[in-house]
Specification:
This protein has about 200 residues and is mostly helical. The protein has one domain. It is built from six helices and two strands. The termini are far apart.
């Protein structure tokens, strides 16, 4: 059986996104495995999120995008299937590619999270991890169920700005870049906590 490597993946393809979302689950498990709950729920500054809150924010954001995305796919999956000769169903508008690039870590710009995406205050680690893995599994399942969907043709309303339409390809890229952005944030918070807790006094 041929094993598909990262370098062999078309960047705009179902295998690419399956790889990235599965890889993200692995990165989260590896990152959190050796961090105890007390540190996960500690703030380096009173205005800072905790690591657990970063993970909860990723989950809540993904769920918010998933809901309209799943409805749109359910309604239009048979309508927007790829022809046999078409290799990819992914298309992102130029300005959306630019915005997705801004999401990439390290931060190009700082954004204030919309209220509906804000994490639950002082969320417990186990709950945050459970919800995040649940959100990741939903994305992976959606990709596995629709390998021949024309993702660039299926459109749905933005969860915050319903008059603004995203296509499914743009939504996947936004979620994927956004979650890496906040994993980067969580890793930085961990670094700050280790330094703070190691300081004398």
């Amino acid at each position: 059986m041929q094993i598909m490597t990262y370098s062999a993946l078309n960047e705009r393809s179902v295998p690419f996104y399956l790889y990235r979302f599965r890889q993200f689950k692995h990165r989260i498990r590896s990152f959190t495995r050796s961090i105890d709950d007390e540190l996960m729920e500690q703030r380096p500054r009173h205005t800072s999120w905790t690591i657990a809150e970063c993970l909860d924010h990723i989950a809540q954001t993904n769920f918010s995008y998933l809901s309209p995305l799943q409805r749109a796919i359910q309604e239009h999956a048979t309508e927007y299937m790829l022809d046999e000769e078409e290799e990819t169903g992914f298309h992102q508008r130029f300005w959306m590619r630019w915005f997705i690039w801004l999401m990439e870590p390290p931060f190009h710009l700082h954004f204030k999270a919309p209220s509906m995406f804000k994490p639950e205050t002082d969320i417990h680690t186990k709950q945050a991890l459970h919800e995040l893995m649940e959100a990741e599994d939903e994305v992976i399942h959606l990709l596995e169920e629709h390998p021949k969907l024309n993702w660039g043709a299926v459109k749905h309303p933005h969860p915050v700005l319903p008059f603004f339409k995203l296509n499914a390809s743009e939504t996947l890229s936004l979620m994927e870049a956004h979650q890496r952005r906040h994993l980067h944030q969580a890793i930085e918070i961990h670094r700050q906590l280790l330094l703070m807790n190691a300081s004398p006094g």
